[in-house]
Amino acid sequence: MARNPQLNKNGELIHLLSIEGLPKAVLDHILDTASTFVSVSDRDVKKVPLLRGKSVFNLFFENSTRTRTTFEIAAKRLSADVLNLDIARSSTAKGETLLDTVANLSAMHADMFVVRHSESGAPYLIAQHCAPHVHVVNAGDGRHSHPTQGLLDAYTIRHFKGNFANLTVAIVGDVLHSRVARSNIHALTTLGCAEVRVVGPRTLVPSDMAAMGVRVCHDLKEGISGADVVMTLRLQNERMSGALLPSSQEFAKSFGLTNERLQWAKPDAIVMHPGPVNRGVEIDSAVLDGPRSVVLNQVTFGIAVRMAVMSIVAGHSA
Question: How high is the mean pLDDT of the chain?
Fold first, then answer.
């Protein structure tokens, strides 16, 4: 069987391309390492020297606010030199191929590429063709994967709930177009979550979910009843083709999370959202801003998790 391209021959993480296929020990190592970085944000000098002298290139071929900014903060807190490529004005916009762009950036002595791309598999392609000393971190590719989001969500759940073994997690909304949902499913099932549910209208739940070991629900009450964690997802209208939904208002009527509906979950259930949020569609403002929401904690923990990922992959050779 071919070796996982994310791991070297010793089973050490050299790229982070997808959570799928990574052993539990690797995920635990990332989460444990992240926990050591959380306190860095509370220091007067918010830096550690682990990536001093290294160059991290942020290659965001797709728009992002939280992800790009938290990767930049994470890299700078590791003392790396960070370069943000302006894709709209780059040679790629002039017709240069992705691999030629990467080859030229590698010649500028890049040590790590953080890649966000609308095409599934783009980070894998870059990892296959970059120099052996260069590490690639997937910051989201098409509908495929968003591994650091899955990891920061897992970290947030572990922080608030402890052991995964007794937890029921419900992921509600546009699962079909969500790379976040797929990464969370792989992370939570690998980490031993008792039950993962995907909840949404039939048109927005892919047919392969049951094969991934999750429970599929097309009714919100059934989906979140007794859940320890309720994660809502944004309707990704920009990725939709055809009339998958009557309207956002129709979705909100059947699947929008309100305080009244949240009572179906456990009394101490936490509410999560990967952002950006459409208030009043997938989640009411009263829930988003309420005491059970940990959405801003997810953003904060995302810096520590991305610090952990970058420090771990940079510490191992191919």
Answer: 92
Residue 189 above 80 pLDDT? Answer: yes
The CA angle 76-67-51, to the nearest 5 degrees, is 25
Contacts of 233 by beta carbon, 8 Å cutoff, 6+ apart: 171, 172, 173, 174, 175, 178, 180, 181, 273, 274, 282
Amino acid at 88: A
Between CA 14 and CA 37 the distance in angstroms is: 20
**Helical H segments across 130-169, by residue range:** 147-161
How large is the average pLDDT for residues 207-219?
A: 93
Q: State residue 244's pLDDT score.
A: 62
Please give the radius of gyration of the chain, using alpha carbons only, rounded to the nearest integer.
19
d(CA 169, CA 226): 9
Residue that is written with structure tokens 């990704």 in the block = 236
Q: N- to C-terminal Cα distance for the chain?
A: 18
Q: Which residue has the higher pLDDT, 182 or 238?
A: 182
- Under 8 Å between Cβ of 239 and 280: no
Q: What is the pTM of this model?
A: 0.94
DSSP H stretches of helix in the chain: 24-37, 66-77, 98-106, 122-129, 147-161, 179-190, 220-224, 248-255, 259-262, 285-288, 295-314
- Is residue 281 helix, strand or coil? coil
Instruction: Count Cβ atoms within 10 A of the Cβ of residue 299 and give its class: 0-12 exposed, 13-18 middle, 19 or more buried.
Output: middle
Integer CA distances (angstroms), 18 to 124, 146, 206, in order: 9, 7, 19
Q: From CA 108, how far away is CA 81, in angstroms rounded?
A: 13
Write the CB contacts of 98 (distance below 8 Å, at least 6 apart in sequence): 92, 117, 122, 125, 126
Burial class (CB in 10 A: 0-12, 13-18, 19+), 190: buried
What gap in Å lies between CA 10 and CA 292, rounded to an integer? 42
249 burial (CB, 10 Å; 0-12 / 13-18 / 19+) is exposed
Cβ–Cβ < 8 Å for 113, 134: yes
Res 294: pLDDT? 98
